[in-house]
Design a protein that fits this description.
Largest sheet: none
Strand content: under 5%
Shape: elongated
Order of helices and strands: HHH
Structural class: mainly alpha
Number of helices: 3
Length: 87
């Protein structure tokens, strides 16, 4: 009870083929395969780009949030909202 035998799956496959047709199923399979291949290629290209950028960028700028030995210059363009309300 609850497990399907091979005959159940064959009946489901037959119904799917009758509903969608073999041409439509082939097109869906081709599109899905192309999408997976494109995703893998994009991940591979992104990983190689990130490795190349990290090697060049880490020498020039420390990562965001990392504490360095030099104090940050105060920003003159910011406005203290609390001070403006009190004053």
């Amino acid at each position: 009870m609850g497990s399907f035998s091979i005959w159940h799956w064959l009946v489901v496959l037959l119904i799917v083929v009758l509903v969608f047709g073999t041409k439509k199923l082939k097109n869906i399979g081709t599109d899905l395969g192309g999408a997976v291949k494109g995703f893998k290629d994009g991940m591979r290209d992104g990983a190689t780009d990130a490795e190349g950028n990290n090697a060049n960028a880490s020498a020039a700028h420390p990562p965001v949030g990392q504490v360095t030995g030099t104090p940050a210059a105060p920003e003159r363009d910011t406005i203290d909202v609390e001070a403006r309300r009190k004053g």
